[in-house]
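Subject: sequence -> structure tokens, single chain

Hey, anyone have a minute? Need the predicted structure for the following. Not urgent.
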Amino acid sequence: MTTIAFRLMRETARALRRATQCHVQEFRRLTLMAFGFSILGAFSPARAQNYFEKGHSPSFTEAQAERGEAAYAASCANCHGANLDDGEFGPALKGATFQQNWGAQSPAALLSYMQQKMPPASPGQLGAQTYADLEAYILEANGAESGAADFSVPGGAAAAPVKKQTFQRDVFTAQENRDAIYKAVMAHRAAELANLTPVTDRVLRHPPDGDWLMWRRTYSELGYSPLDEIRRANVGTLQLAWSRALPPSANEITPIEHDGVVFIESGSTIQALDGVTGALLWQYVRQLPDVLLKGSDSTLRGIAIYQDKIYAPTADGHMIAVEAKTGKLVWDHEVVVPLSGEYAHSNHDFRLDGAPIVVNGKVIFGVSLGITNPNGGCFIEALDAETGRQLWRFHTIARPGQPGGNSWNGAPVDQRFGASVWTSGSYDPKRNLVYFGTGNTYDVSTLLQPHTAPPGDSNDGLYTESTLALDPDTGKLAWYYQHVNRDVWDLDWVFEQLLITLPMHGKPTDLVVSGGKMAIFDALDRTDGKYEFSKDLGLQNLVTSIDPKTGKKTIDPKLEPVANKPELVCPTSNGARNWPSTSYNPNTHILYVPLAEACMDYTWVPGTPAQTAAGGLDIRFTLKTRPHSDGKMGRLDAVNLETRKIVWMDRQRAPFASAMLTTNGGLLFSGSQNREFTAYDASTGKALWQAGLNATPSSYPITYAVDGKQYVAMVSGGGSPLDGGDHSLAPELDNPSGGITLWIFALPSAAK
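Reply:
Had a minute. Here:
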């Protein structure tokens, strides 16, 4: 039967129903007759009536079913057939076979299954409304009668996520083969998940050597692994163990691993994978609002594991918990309210892009800003790990009456902007403190233009560009240190807070070390924030001196912003360093720093008083190469933090694109914008092994072990803002974007 004939007969049936308002059984009989199908024996009106009267039948409108028909033709008919039951590749979606598989389940379960699994090439990517429309079309084709209201997902509008409904895992069609091989494979996967052990507070504080349980492996955020099966002598034989394509995203992804299972979030999807083979163990697909492009433009840097749950931020501003063994949603907490109006398509007011950490049963994370710069600034929040209930919130813009509350040039709270937190925090169990870094303010006119300031008010802009030490149980501020007062050049100090111990003042001293975009690293006493020392890697021209007692930076007065006047400032707003994290070897005290040598023409473009009050980006940047550049923009420094000396330096054409990973095997792993993933001798900087990937490895590499075998993981695919911004430094590196791929490398069996 041709598609045209099919539609004509379907319209005939619809017309009959509208004309006669016939009883449901009679309408189904007429519909089936019009279609010319003889399936009454397999799916009789009586059987259909029994099914739909069991509370399974939702409401849907005729218009919705028609939308579903169009969506089906575009996205489903190629596999399932034009008539829903005559496809060469997909199972029947109406009739006896369909009823055999789905008759005992609710329409909500079918909707959840479609969102999680369909279409096979891009599950969850059609949009919530489209999935609901498709279900309406399928239900109508199976004899359900339309009504006055659209079918939607449980609990609200069609764009809302399915919160509690799950589909049965063991749903099969008649065509699927459940033979002995299949059963053995599924039994093995089930056993692998069943063997997952709880990740307790003790395990998080003392993780097994082979596990990678959080963003930078441990609470100290060192990006260091004690594994040493892969080492200098054998890394040259490293080879691909397996790879897996991931759903579209903006990358910057960090996998985690526990008990041989790799957990990873990309776009709108969380997956559990066999760490040895890459086999999919379970998958959670979040149904995002259509305006968010199904998460393909989202930057979600990591997830966390605690007890029996995985915790993940989502592109639509929620924090969720799913079961580690099944992927079933446990709780869903809306952290930020969805956008509306001009910026609704981009979700660029508040974002959750940093990985959460779990401390004392609390999921703790920061919130960052996008392009709309909401007033009042950002915050750090803690949720109950078991229930998702909010426990506390700390605002990263100081309020009047708080320490630093009079540091905003006299501006009221609703004209204070910024202090993003887009990097995970670290945690010191001994002091019971979490440490977070904060960013700058994009609306610099607040700090540059005069306000009616009370006596004693400053324009430092706290808590921008600061390290914050908070009590994880209460959210109370223990201490803060502002690395740069009044940063109006977009040179954030928001990155990893390294917890290290160095000999200071004749004794081991616990420090928190962090570096901003200027590639100046400050070391502070972990207990009280007392300044200890700084290390400037020499790629900035803004700071002329650093006070050796306080760490206060003196800014070159010639580079103070003047309205509408460009100045050459180094580094660029992309930073000499940015989100690609450093790595620190606690045995050698060496810090490995990925860098980009570049500058910018910086211009302050003040708006009207009304625009300043409303907030918005009022600074402009033009990327420039450094004066007298030799064309090498990528730089990797190995810095001994005990001696404050650079041990070695590697310079290359391509800027570095990934975080650093160092291991007890004497190796350092990193990725560059030339698509190369490289293993270096950590003591000399000599490249020992390279792998050319499909796209830029704009992510965080990790390493883990299963049954004593070590693996190294890296995600490629580009998509990071640095891939666009730094591309002009070396435009001949015309790297592809997309194709987000997880690469896993290991030694051949005989190479140990």
